[in-house]
Amino acid sequence: MLRRSPLILLLLAGCSKGPEADLQYIGQARSLGAEWALVNEQANKGQLTATYVHSMRQWLRDGLTTTASSLTQPDSRYGAEICTLLAEPDDAAPDELRVHVGRLKQIEDSLESA
Amino acid sequence: MNPLELTLGIMTAVGGFVDISELVFAAKAGSKFGYALIWVFALSTIGIIVFSEMCGRVAATAKQPVFSLMRHRLGLKLGLATLAASFVANLITCAAELGGVALVINYLTGAPYMLMAVVLTLLIVLSIWVLPFQWIERTYGLLGLFMITFAAALVAIHPPWGHIAGGFVPQVPHGLSKKELLTFGYFVVAIVSAVMFPYEVYFYSSGGIEEGWGPKDVLTNRLTALIGMGLGSTLAISILANSAQMFEPANVDPAIPGSAALQAAIPFGKWGLILALMGMFFAVAGAAVETCLANAYSIAQFFGWVWGRHKKPWEAPRFTITWIAIFAIALAIVLTGIDVMTLVEFAILFSILVLPLTYLPLLLLANDRKYMREYVNGALAKALGWFYFAVITLAALAALPLYLLTSGGNG
C-alpha cells in the first residue's frame, strides 16, 4: 500500500473534484483580480500607456473567464464571487476590485487550512 | 579584447535567463516566496556558467559542439532518444517565445495577437536569413539590454538590501504547510530547469564554432560565460526582488507576462513601461532565435549534415530547411490558440528531463585528457561539473511528481 501511495496521490491530483480541485482556480482568479486592480491604480496615476491598459484588461478578463469556466463547482460561493468580479467594468475602481480579491483570498485561505 | 565579442554570451544569457518563462517564473517566485528563492537562481547561475565555459572550451579546442559529442558518447539509441526529447522541449519553448513576442507587441501597440504571431515569425525568419551570425547575436543581445530597466527599477524603489542579500543563503522558509513546501520544491526544480535550459549550451557551443573560436579564444569564452550569464542572472533576480516588493503585498501572483512590465512602470512611469516592453521584446525574440537555431544545430550535428549560419543558406540546405520548418511548426502551435503559460510549463518540464543527458557527455569529454590535452577540466571544473550533474539529476527525478502534485506550481 505504501508503495502505491505516491501513484494514488498523483492520480488524485489529476482527477479530483470540488473545492479542493478548485483551489488553484480560486488562487488564479484572486491574482488576476489583483493584477487588474494594480493596472487600474497605475493607469489612474498616469503611469501607463492607454494601449497597454486596454490590452492588459482584455487579457486579464480572458484569463478570468477561462478560470471561471474551469471550476468544477461554478455554483459555489467562490464561483459567484468570480462572476461578480467579471461583471465589473474595465475601468472599475481599484478598491472595488480589491474587495473581491480580499473575499477570494479569504475563501482560498479557509480552504487551504481545512 | 573587443567588448563586442561578449555579445554571444549576452544573447545566450539574456535569451536564456529572461525569456518568457523566466519573466513569469521569477516574478511568481518573488510574489509567492519573497526573497527565499534567490539562492536557487545564484546556485543555478554558477552551474550554467560552469557548463557554458566547458562547452565553449570544448568548441574552441576540440571543435566539437554538444550534439556531436552526444552521438559519440551516448551511442546511437540513447543519443537519438536525447535528440527527440530535446527537440520537443526546444520546439515547445520556441512556440512559447513566439507567442510571447506577439504578446509584447500586443501590449505595446494593441495589434492583434494572432496576426502579430505570424508577422513577427516572418520578420524573425527574415532576420536570420539576412543577417550574418555575429549580427544576429549583436542585434538581439545588445537590444535585449533594455531589460536593464528592471534592475534600475529595483534600485529606484529602495528595497531592503539586507533581506535581498539574505536570499542568497540556501533556505526553506519557515512555517510553510505541506502543500506550500511542495510548491516551493516545484519552484526550486523549475528555476534550475529554466536557468540551465539545454538550448543555451546547444546555442552557445555552436555559436562558438560559428564564430571560428580556437584555443586563443579560451579566455574570451571564460569571460563571455561569466559576464553574460552573470548579467542574465542579475536581471532575473531583479525581477524576482521587484516582484517581492511590488506584487506580494498586492496579492498579485503574476499570471500573464505583461504584468512584469508593471515593475518598471511603477517607479518610472510610461517611459519605464515602454523600455521594459522593448527589452522584453528583444530578449524574448532572441530566445525564439536561440531555441530554433539550437534545435536545427542539434539535428544537423547529430546526423552529420553541413550546418551553420556562417554559410550561405543554400550552402547548408538541410540545416536551412530545418530551422525554417521549426519556426513553421512552432507558429502552428501558437495559432492553435494554446495559452503561452501552458507552453512555458511544458517546456520547463521537458527541459529538465533532458538536462542530465545533455550535460553528461559534455562533462565526460571535458574531463578526457586524451581529447582536451592542456585544456582538460581542472580539479575545480571537474568537482563543480559532477556536483551540478548530481543536482540536475535529482531535479529531473523530482520534476514530474512535483509538477503533478502542485498542478504546475499553481497550488
How would you characterize the overall build of this protein?
The complex is a heterodimer of chains A (114) and B (411). Chain A has 114 residues and is mostly helical. Chain A has one domain (17-113). Chain A has five helices and no strands. Chain A is elongated and about 45 Å long. Chain B is mainly alpha-helical and 411 residues long. Chain B has a single domain (3-405), classed as Amino acid/polyamine transporter I, CATH 1.20.1740. Chain B has 16 helices and no strands. Chain B is globular, with a radius of gyration of 20 Å. The termini of chain B are far apart. The chains are: A mainly alpha (114), B mainly alpha (411).
Q: Helix share of residues of chain B? A: over 70%
The radius of gyration over CA of chain B amounts to: 20 Å
The top-level CATH class of chain B is: Mainly Alpha
Overall 3D shape of chain A? elongated
Terminal CA distance of chain B reads: 49 Å
Q: Which pair has the most extensive contact?
A: A-B, 34 and 34 residues
How can the largest sheet of chain A be summarized? none
Strand share of the residues of chain A? under 5%
Instruction: Give the rounded overall mean pLDDT of chain A.
Output: 87
What is the H/E string of chain A? HHHHH
Overall shape of chain B: it is globular
Poorly predicted regions of chain B? none
Q: Counting H and I runs of at least 4 residues, what is the number of helices of chain A?
A: 5
- Proper CATH architecture of chain B: Up-down Bundle
Structurally, the number of domains of chain B stands at 1
Structurally, the number of domains of chain A stands at 1
